[in-house]
Amino acid sequence: MSTLDAVLDPELAEGAYNAVNVCLKVRPEEKVTLITDAASRPIAASLAHELDGVGAPYRIWELEALARRPLESTPPEILEDLETSQVSIFAVRPQPHELGARRQITEVAIRRKIRHAHMVNITRQIMMQGMRADFHKVDDISQEVLAIVSAAEAIRVKSAAGTDFVARFNPNFHWLKTSGIISPETWGNLPGGEVFTAPENVEGTFVVDGVVGDYLCAKFGDLRRQPLTIRLYDNRLIEAHSENRELEEDFWNYTHSDDNSDRVGEFAIGTNVGVRQVIGNILQDEKIPGVHIAFGDPLGAYTGANWTCTTHIDVVGTELDVVVGERQLMERGEFRL
């Protein structure tokens, strides 16, 4: 399909402009694949309007028009279209067990070096907050953080809520920044703002008083009042407790659905200073200045980690102290750069 039946929302315009013109830098001669769903149709319409302004040719694909959801795999029409595109945007609300389908898209982006914007869980609120950030400033901060952490042997993370863990790093694994300025070398989430790697080992306690990822995010939202406390040993999840027993059970089941689902695959520092408060949506909340880790797939194509997993779920804490070696990088969620 090439058009969407949606009324343009003027309040989405600034975020859509940032996505198309600042983050992706779409040029008139480039072809764009825009993937969306029924829930995200107004956002896709605003992105398409900006593409019209650039003059770039594009195709819009709405998932429900092509296949039943949850998706078992990406519809072949989309994968075929990606083979002839230089830019792609995935603006979709996720449903359970769709990670495999999303990975098919990012695998094409990696192979073809497509500038790919991953906007999973995008909402109107995020378009009006995180997507309005000054991404050039976020990129500057991300670059400074990258320079500090890329040589780190260990990083300690603590909080008044009870977080206290140490992450150690393998010098053969790569640190990356996804600041929102997207290049052909690495696809990125939008809104952007993080520096990450696959850790060698993480041990200690993490009080997740922010949010959990994937489809559990929409189910449980902001965890401030009923946090999830997780314990880590030898880079594996060994305990998870919450007053919200449903959250505890769902998270435990998610992180034990594959051999490596309980293994820490990502350690990341949020760098988007344009957002300050948890809203209960992982797409934006993991970019808040602080730390998040993820269990499951370590994005080995980028980080260099030599193991894989069919799942990936992030967990976010708030008001964290972060110490890199002997240097305090962050105090209660505020950078000390």
Describe the structure.
The structure is a single chain. This protein is of the alpha+beta class. The protein folds into 2 domains: 10-130, Thermophilic metalloprotease (M29) (Thermophilic metalloprotease-like, 3-Layer(aba) Sandwich); 133-335, no CATH class. The protein is 26% helix and 28% strand. The chain has 10 helices and 19 strands. The chain has helices at 13-23, 41-54, 76-82, 99-112, 124-128, 135-149, 216-220, 245-254, 282-285, 300-303; strands spanning 32-36, 58-62, 87-92, 115-120, 154-158, 164-168, 176-178, 188-189, 194-197, 201-208, 211-212, 228-233, 236-241, 264-270, 290-296, 312-316, 321-324, 327-331, 334-335. The strands form 3 sheets. It has an 8-stranded antiparallel beta sheet, covered by helices on one side. A 6-stranded antiparallel beta sheet has the order 7-9-14-15-16-11. A 5-stranded parallel beta sheet has the order 2-1-3-4-8, with helices on both faces. Helix 1 packs across helix 2. The termini are far apart. The mean pLDDT is 95.
Mean pLDDT: 95
Number of helices: 10
Measured on Cα atoms, how large is the radius of gyration?
Answer: 19 Å
Shape: globular
Strand order of the largest sheet: 13-12-10-6-5-17-18-19
Helix content: 25-40%
Number of domains: 2
User: End-to-end span in angstroms?
Assistant: 47 Å
In this structure, how is the largest beta sheet organized? 8 strands, antiparallel
Number of strands: 19
Oligomer: single chain
Q: Structural class, please?
A: alpha+beta
* Beta fraction: 25-35%
- H/E element sequence: HEHEHEHEHHEEEEEEEHEEHEHEHEEEE
- Low-pLDDT stretches are none
